[in-house]
Design brief:
Blueprint lengths: L7 H4 L10 H8 L5 E2 L11 H10 L12 H11 L6 E4 L1 H13 L6 E6 L3 H9 L3 E6 L8 H7 L4 E7 L11 H10 L5 E5 L24 E6 L12 E4 L2 H10 L7 H12 L1 H24 L3 E2 L6 E5 L7 H10 L2 E2 L1 E2 L8 E5 L3 H14 L1
Parallel strand pairs: 1-11, 3-4, 3-5, 5-6, 6-7
Antiparallel strand pairs: 2-8, 7-8, 9-10, 10-13, 12-13
Helix pairs in contact: 3-10, 4-10, 5-6
Bound molecules: 4'-deoxy-4'-aminopyridoxal-5'-phosphate.
């Protein structure tokens, strides 16, 4: 048979690299208890209220969700104190990011801009949309060189992506720098602040423009239910965008990409304030503890406001690839950062106190 017909950008496509799954490691090493600290999931699991909601709605699985997910949109809008006409939801914030490229950036004409390394979905979806993604490296300490970013912006730039807290470093720029950036961009360009991890910062007001969007008409805030709300497997993300953009989003989005279970779970998750607060408390406490312990082991830990830490191993010990493998054999999954161009670094999601302790005990033996 002759080759399957395919667009050339699909043939040469470099896919997103996901963290290893618990099942893969169980099977490969025959280990029952596997600790996954690779995908920045919620250490407390799923909120009891979300679990209850899923159970009570499972009988409705035969129904389509209501197009446009209006109840969920209203709940998110109320949570942020914005008009529902500015809220869009997607099948994870991955879908929101994908659709921002499709809606805002004309391939071959316009461009998008981001730092490097960046969250992998920016590069995969830009490539798939045939969009030029211009990138400039972050500083050696993983802070952001704004002047270099601005040098990439021209009158054809439609989107500038800034991830805050950043992934994979955890770096989080002060809000004053975002204000300056938003004002410096041409008004033909939208600034997308990807705040997937913003709930874990010590004080949101120091880092986020989410409560001040009226002052910044060209700013988009993107968030997710995958992290602090513990719903990564249900796939639900959202963004607050200018009304005109929301209007077009609903026209082009696949009509039912946010499924009925995710919709009900999202509404419930917003109500379970106690679970959310406890998650944030456990993450902040674990982050401080892990930072101290990894530092004692000689690692360079990069400051993080997120639910994960990036660290560089001491020069005199094993390299990141071999430590990663040795930890896997003990049933602990971290995230090597080779695919981000950082072969000496690893990323660890903050787990429960017990999981964090098991990781540090294992590393003490291996380093
Ligand atoms: N943005 C960033 C920076 C992320 O790290 C992630 C999750 N890994 C996402 C967006 C996507 O989140 P989701 O699709 O699960 O909502």
């Amino acid at each position: 048979m002759s080759p399957i017909p395919m667009r050339s950008l699909v043939r040469g496509f470099k896919p997103y690299t996901a963290g290893l799954s618990i099942d893969e490691i169980r099977e490969k090493y025959g280990i029952e208890r596997v600790i996954k600290l690779a995908s920045n999931e919620n250490p407390l699991g799923t909120s009891p209220l979300v679990q209850h909601t899923l159970e009570t709605h499972v009988g409705l699985a035969f129904r389509y969700p209501q197009a446009g997910n209006p109840r969920l949109v209203k709940a998110i809008a109320a949570h942020h104190g914005v008009s529902p006409s500015r809220v869009i939801v997607g099948d994870g914030s991955d879908e929101v990011i994908d659709l921002l490229f499709r809606i805002c950036v004309e391939p071959g004409v316009n461009n998008a801009v981001a730092f490097m390394p960046c969250f992998g979905i920016y590069t995969t979806q830009a490539a798939l949309c045939g969009v030029e993604l211009r990138q400039t490296p972050v500083n050696a300490d993983f802070s952001f060189p704004w002047d270099n970013l601005l040098k990439l912006v021209d009158d054809k730039t439609s989107l500038v992506f800034v991830t805050t807290p950043d992934n994979p470093s955890g770096y989080t720029p002060p809000v004053a720098e975002l204000e300056t950036l938003a004002k410096a961009l041409p008004d033909t360009c939208l600034l997308v602040l990807d705040e997937a991890y913003m709930d874990f910062t010590d004080d949101e007001a120091d880092y986020s423009l989410a409560k001040r969007l009226d002052e910044f008409p060209n700013v988009i805030i993107s968030r997710t239910f995958s992290k602090s709300f513990g719903m990564a497997g249900l796939r639900l993300g959202y963004a607050i965008v200018p009304e005109e953009l929301a209007d077009h989003y609903w026209r082009v989005r696949l009509p039912f990409s946010v499924n009925l279970m995710a919709e009900e779970a999202g509404i419930a998750a917003l109500q379970d304030v106690a679970f959310h607060d406890e998650t944030v408390r456990v993450v902040r406490e674990g982050r401080a503890w892990l930072t101290g312990e990894l530092t004692k082991l000689g690692c360079r830990v990069f400051p993080s406001q997120s639910n994960f830490l990036m660290f560089e191993l001491p020069a005199d010990g094993p390299n990141a690839a071999s430590l990663f493998e040795d930890l896997l054999r003990r049933g602990i999954i971290l995230r090597p950062l080779t695919s981000y161009g950082l072969p000496r670094n690893l990323r660890v999601s903050v787990g429960t106190a017990e999981e964090n302790t098991m990781l540090i005990n294992a590393m003490r033996e291996l380093l």
